[in-house]
Amino acid sequence: MPIPPPPPPPPGPPPPPTFNQANTEPPRLSREEQRGRGALLQDICKGTKLKKVTSINDRSAPILEKPKGSSGGYGSGAAALQPKGGLFQGGVPKLRPVGAKDGSAPPPPPPMIRNGARDAPPPPPPYRMHGSDPPSRGKPPPPPSRTPAGPPPPPPPPLRNGHRDSITTVRSFLDDFESKYSFHPVEDFPAPEEYKHFQRIYPSKTNRAARGAPPLPPILR
Fold this sequence. Notes:
Blueprint: H1 19-24, H2 31-48, H3 74-81, H4 161-180, H5 203-211
C-alpha cells in the first residue's frame, strides 16, 4: 500500500497589530480579568476618600512663660529669659530714666568677658621712632684709629735649585723629541693623481641577473 503523504505544517501566527490598530481597538479581556480590574479600581477609589477630622491639635503657636507678677517689670522677665553666658553674663545693664539730667554719672561699664581661663593680652609697648633712642643709652664709641703703615713686605725669595733643574729637564726632553721626528712642508710631497670617473660593478647584482627570477612560493592545499 502506498504511504500517505505527511500532514501539512500548521499555519504561522498572525502578524502583530500595527501602531494605529493597537491604539484604536480596545483590548479584549476575559471575565476573570475584568473582575480583577474592577476590584483594583474599587481599592483605588476607597483610598481617595479622606477621613473626617474630629479634634484639632494646633502646635504652631510659640510657648512663652508668663511672668508671675504683673508689676515685676520688664527687667526681671528679660533676665529670666536670657541665658547665663554670652553678652549679658554679668547681668542686664540698667537703663536711665527719661527725666534724668545730663550731669548725672554714667552707668558703670559692663564686666569684661573672659574666653575660658585666658586673660586679655597686655597692651603693646609704645611706638618708637627710628631717630629717637632712650636717654639712658650713651653715644656709640668712636671707631678705632688706624695704625701707621709699616714698611713694605720683603720681596719674594729667589727660586730654589730644584725648580730650575725641573725647567731645564723639560726643555731638554722637548729638544730630544723634535730631533727624533722631522716634519716636512706640504710642497715637498708629490701631487696626487687626477680623479677619473668609472662605473663600479658589484658582484651581487651580476649574480642576480644570471640566476633569473626567484621561484614561486608553494601553493597551499
